[in-house]
Amino acid sequence: MINSILLFIWLLSISLFAFSQEPTAKLPKIIHLATTDWCPYACDQEPNHQAGIVHEYLTGLFSEQGIQLKIEFFPWSRAIHQVNGGRLDGLLTAVPIEAPNLLFTRTPTMGYQVCFYSKRNISWRYSGAASLKDIKLGVIQDYGYGQPVDEHIKNAASQDLAIIKSGGMERLQRMLMAGRFHVFIGDRNVVSWRLKENMSVVRNAGCLAEIPFYMAFNPQRTWAAKLINKLNGWLKTAGNQARLNSIKMQYRFGPVNHR
User: Fold this and answer.
1) Which is nearest to 149 in space by CA: 208, 66, 204, 192?
2) How is domain 114-207 classified at the CATH fold level?
3) CA 20 to 30 Å from 83, out of 9, 128, 189, 220?
4) Class of domain 28-111+213-250
5) Overall pTM > 0.85
6) Cis peptide leading into 40, omega within 30 of 0?
């Protein structure tokens, strides 16, 4: 009997402690986020003024909660640096390997899928980690591509990689055609969007599995944990999933398939 009472008291104390840890900081009215030009997810200065699927989706979602998002574009490495250094509050899109010091939502915003692209006269196809040793690969600095590519980039000799800081898919495609490397890697939607008029000169040489991506925030923001707890719920609602699907269709992509 005494043991039961002690167990009840212990469980009650744990519950009270957990409740006391619930973030009490007031959520801000304006949140400053960094991102990179990653169209169709986040678009910088598109001729048709489209902001991007995730940009539109999250701006609307936060607006309904009385929060304004102010989103700034940088080369990806600098975007991460801006948030890690505390100059901005968070990243619009990210995966943990790209910014391990930040706090991430547990509910993904969307998913992305990276694929390999070569010239049409190249027969190489991705068939696992070992096949990466046969090529020189073009990548963007500090991007998280997923395994086994991230591990390959980490360990590969410098002569087996071409790493760019800016210029995106267009620059990688120009470098590919100039013979600077054998294959570049990029999200299939980004490549299709950016290389619309040049897709005929490249071939898809295989893809990795789809990867979820998230929002991330500087842990020094006192409201970050509270906001993330709320976001994990907001992102799951049927209404917000329907909103995301509707926006994706406007960008000529199918319904969301990652939950």
Assistant:
1) 208
2) D-Maltodextrin-Binding Protein; domain 2 (3.40.190)
3) 189
4) alpha beta
5) no
6) yes
